[in-house]
Amino acid sequence: MNIDFTVAIPTYNGESKLPQVIERLQNQEAVEAINWEIIVVDNNSRDRTGELIRAYQKQWKHPFPLRYCFEIQQGLAFARARAIQEAQGEIIGFLDDDNLAAPNWISEAYKFILENPRVGACASQIHGAFEVAPPENLKPILFYLAITERGEKPHLYQPRRGVPPGAGLVVRRQVWKDNVPVNLFFIGRVSSSMVGSEDAEALLYIQNAGWEIWYNPAMEIEHVIPASRLEKKYLISLLRSIGLARHHLRMLQLKLWQRPFAFFAYLISDTLKSMGYFIHNRHLINEDVVTACEMERLIATTISPFYLAKLRIQRFWQNKRSPN
Predict the structure, then answer these.
(1) Residue 15: is its pLDDT beyond 60?
(2) Distance between CA atoms of 162 and 144, rounded to whole angstroms?
């Protein structure tokens, strides 16, 4: 049987979260004409994720298969690359293990891709399913938690105007294989790296190759957000990660000859922005979470080229020391 659509779920220690994700997928509507599958990519979990999926497989009675694979290299980028390799569908929908798909998510995603041949990737409308209601003062930065509510009309992400988060992202498998490097620079937020943005890096390669990236509000998911992600410590860490990734993502959007000039222009601009923000908001930094987060993002953006240069050197020496 040819597979039309693959739902890929990368997970790390997802034993407690995956049942709800799988239950939503079991109740998908209007998929009778679509041959589809689910692949759970276990990214070196330390809990009983593998046992959970094998238990599901033993009693699985649905027409769409549930598959499992284990990716030992830690990092969401490696898990996504493994999903691309293992998927049988030419269209792949990525769900994180805290993403709950609406009943028509697969059918709407499949239809949108088929009707738009220049679309290499399309992003879902993402709603926050908060464990506790977020305080009013955090609303200006909640979009950093991969919440994407950009209205009820599809729209194109223009080059150099940002790309969507990876939660609920749907891609053409061949477009990814042809344009996204097997080994991305960003691997995900793991112990060896503070930086995420592996989704943005992959999408920029797709966009640079001339493929369109769209927001499709008919594809809806809920992003389950625990109370811990509204705490100041987590938000500061998240904004720091976003800032530290900025230099590499900027450079990917420029031609090689432009990059040396852009390096100095961005460095001067980012330094002035950080200094100006501090001068005008220094009295709020210790009191207001949003101000503290924005200050952290601006500082991290300023030091991004130096942090990433250090990271490249560290990886070079790690590769030199590792056995062949």
Answers:
(1) yes
(2) 13
Same domain as 291, residue 264: yes
Query: Which distant-in-sequence residues (6+ apart) come within 8 Å of 84 by Cβ?
Result: 8, 92, 173, 176, 177, 180
Neighbouring residues of 138: CB distance < 8 A, sequence distance ≥ 6: 230, 235, 289, 290
Reported as a single tens digit per residue, the pLDDT across 121-175 is 999 999 999 999 999 999 999 999 999 999 999 999 999 889 999 999 999 999 9
Of all residues in the chain, the percent with pLDDT exceeding 90 is 92
Do 170 and 113 form a contact (C-beta atoms < 8 A)? yes
Tell whether 79 and 226 lie within a shared domain.
yes
Same domain, 239 and 279: yes
**Structurally, how many domains does the chain consist of?**
2
Neighbours of 35 (CB within 10 A): 15
Of residues 248, 266, 254, 253, the one with CA closest to residue 302: 266
**Residue 245 burial (10 A CB sphere; 0-12, 13-18, 19+):** buried
CATH number at 59 reads 3.90.550.10
pLDDT digits (tens, 9 = 90+) for 169-210: 999 999 999 999 999 999 988 765 668 899 999 999 999 999
Is 158 found in the same domain as 78? yes
Tokens 């697969």 correspond to 106
What's the CA gap between 91 and 85, in Å, rounded?
12
| Distances in whole angstroms, Cα of residue 99 to Cα of each of 50, 143, 225 | 19, 15, 10
58 is written with which tokens?
């033993």
pLDDT in tens, 255-290: 999 999 999 999 999 999 999 999 999 999 999 999
Tell me the three state secondary structure of residue 91: strand
Would strands 99-101 and 119-130 be described as parallel, antiparallel, or unpaired? unpaired
